[in-house]
Amino acid sequence: MSVATGGSEAAAAAAAAGGGSGNRVFFQSPRSGGGSGGSSGGSSREDSVSAAAVVQVQQQQQQRRHQQGKVTVKYDRKELRKRLVLEEWIVEQLGQLYGCEEEEMPDVEIDIDDLLDAANEEERALKLQETLVDCYKPTEEFIKELLTRIRGMRKLSPPQKKSI
Asked: What's the number of domains the chain is made of?
């Protein structure tokens, strides 16, 4: 089976018969090499069934392409933006506390989700003090400000995969 669009002979004839304008899609059966130019009476039904099957397959392929293009991350953009701003602030403050650039900074990891898991402010402050134990500058102001900034934030869970 072949697909003909508005430019073929059959399409032009059908468009003239229908009186409509614009591109139309017509389905034609393959031409047989050895037979007469006519077709049997049962083939038109087979052609319409085949045409419907082709259209359905094309629609399914288009749907799959559309589904693959969707973003599957379920995070709230506003929450992500707040998290990014907070992380940039933390890096800047750690640079000031340790007196160096980000590349030269000792391996200090402040996990915001871990802090949000803590039961209360005191437990969060203790975790931060343990993380910053090797900092030679006072860290109390940084810890206090960080705890203020994370107040009201939510823990981010990993994105959930949708079944396709």
From this structure: 1
